Amino acid sequence: METGVRLQNYMYAVQVLERMRQVKAEQEKDNRSAEIRIGIYKERIKGLRSAKKAAIQPDGKAAA
């Protein structure tokens, strides 16, 4: 009987570890995706700032 309980505990532990690995992999995938989106947004902001600077002439007036 004790061997059966140990085996059940072992199998449960293996299942829990596998699920933890899956969750970790999903989180890493989500983090990579978020980092990519952040990079895209940063580039867009840089572009907007550059366009805004280019639209303002050295004398401080807006370009036509």
Q: Key features?
A:
single chain, mainly alpha, rod-shaped, 64 residues
Helix content: over 70%
Structural class comes to: mainly alpha
Low-confidence runs (pLDDT<50, min 5 residues)? none
- What is the domain tally? 1
Using the CA coordinates, give the radius of gyration.
Answer: 27 Å
Strand composition percent:
under 5%
Instruction: Characterize the overall form.
Output: rod-shaped
Q: Give the terminus-to-terminus CA distance.
A: 87 Å
Question: How many helical elements?
Answer: 1
- One letter per element, helices H and strands E, the order comes to H
Largest sheet: none
How many beta strands in the DSSP annotation? 0
Account of the protein in words:
With 64 residues, the protein is an all-alpha fold. The chain has one domain (1-53). The protein has one helix at residues 2-55. It is rod-shaped. The termini are far apart.
Can you summarize this structure?
This protein has one helix at residues 2-55.
Outline the secondary-structure elements.
Blueprint: H1 2-55
